[in-house]
Amino acid sequence: MSRFIPNPTPCGQTRREFLWQVGGGFAGLALADLMASEARAASPLAEKQPHFVSKAKHCVFLFMNGGPSQVDTFDPKPALKKYHGMPYTGDAKVGSNGRAVGHLMQSPFEFTRHGQSGLPISSLFPHTARFADDLCVIRSMHADTAAHASGCLQMNTGSIFIGKPCLGSWLSYGLGTENQNLPGFVVMTDPRGGPIGSASNWTAGYMPAAYQGTLFRSGGSPLLDLATPEGTSDRTQRRSLDLLKTLNEEHLKMHPDETELVARIESYELAYRMQTEAMNVVDVDREDEATREMYGLDDKRTADFGRKCLLTRRLIEKGVRFIQLYSGGGHIEDTWDGHTDCITNHTLHAGETDKPIAALIADLKRTGLWDETLLVWGGEFGRTPTSEGVGKPGRDHDWHGFSMWMAGAGVKGGQAIGATDELGFKAVEDRCHVSDLHATILHLMGIDHSRLSFPHQGLNQRLTGVEERQVITKALA
Amino acid sequence: MFNGDFVNQQAGHFAARLRREAGDDQGKQISLAWRLALCREPTAAELTQMRTFLSEESLEQVCRVILNLNEFVYPE
Question: Under 8 Å CB-to-CB from A285, ≥6 apart: which residues?
Answer without folding.
Answer: none
